[in-house]
Design goal:
The protein is an alpha+beta fold and 278 residues long. Helix content is 26%, strand content 36%.
Length: 278
């Protein structure tokens, strides 16, 4: 009996050692952020603009923007780099690089709004009004950012020979360097006519009796209608940094069907962008 118990205890000890060894082999993913924070847990999903992450021992899922992540070291040992940390220039290059300083360091926290693309009923239209409205709203909620006036932005683009056609040959990093900014806002509004809403008003005949002459008086009836054109508006908005990386990208269909519905939609998307300050 004693011998049997010894064998049983030995088996249990071996099982515990095996389980402990297996637990020790389980590794976690490590997310290293640009500010130096390390997040240990599991990367559940990588989306276009963020990742879904859960801490070790927890089930709550967090969304972390890719723009905040330097790299992820997966449990397999694979490393995926998202952003490289900015490195200061060597001291001995400080004097010769004075010309480059204005084109690099002075970009910091500067934002330019590109002329908006505007497609109306399938035809290109002038998006300057939308560009101006975007500037007006962002300038009121700029915080630490300096927003270039559209006139300045457009003048710099013209001087560089960049228009709606030639801009396709430039990266967003190129555009940032041309404009001397850290971020550029790029947008497209598509508006199409849909149905018409008709409002009809009628006025029937009115008959009354005058007590004095006992005569009936009749008034003419009439009707009129007004037709209001409805529109479907879609807006795409993206923000790029001077590395050419999209830090924000959203599409939205306007809730209202009016001709100026893009305005509310634009504000809705800008309020949710990383450049918005209350």
């Amino acid at each position: 009996m004693l011998k049997h118990m010894k064998k049983l205890l030995t088996c249990l000890a071996m099982m515990l050692i095996s389980l402990y060894s297996f637990a020790q082999q389980v590794k976690n993913d490590v997310v290293l952020k640009l500010d130096g924070d390390e997040l240990v847990g599991k990367v559940l999903k990588i989306n276009n603009d963020d990742i879904e992450f859960s801490y070790t021992g927890e089930t709550l899922v967090y969304n972390i923007k890719k723009a905040e992540i330097m790299k992820i070291t997966f449990s397999s040992g694979r490393i995926q780099v998202f952003n490289k940390p900015q490195q200061a220039a060597p001291a001995q290059n400080a004097a010769p690089a004075s010309a480059d300083k204005s084109s690099l360091e002075d970009h910091h926290n500067k934002v330019a709004i590109l002329p908006f693309g505007f497609i109306r009923d399938g035809q290109p239209a002038d998006g300057e009004q939308i560009q101006n409205e975007c500037y007006s709203f962002m300038n009121k909620h700029s915080g630490v950012y300096t927003i270039l006036p559209p006139r300045t932005t457009n003048a710099l683009l013209i001087k560089a020979g960049i228009n709606s056609e030639t801009i396709k040959g430039y990266t967003m990093e190129d555009i940032c360097n041309v404009l001397g900014v850290e971020y550029v806002v790029d947008g497209l509004v598509t508006m199409n006519k849909t149905t018409q809403t008709t409002t009809q008003s009628n006025s029937g005949a009115v008959k009354s009796k005058d007590d004095d002459d006992r005569k009936d008086r009749k008034y003419n009836s009439y009707s009129y209608g007004t037709a209001t054109q409805n529109f479907q508006t879609k807006l795409s908005l993206a923000i790029y940094n001077d590395k050419g990386t999209a830090v924000y990208s959203q599409d939205r269909t306007a809730f209202w069907n009016t001709q100026d519905a893009y305005s509310n939609t634009l504000e809705y998307l800008l309020k949710r962008s990383p450049l918005y300050t209350k």
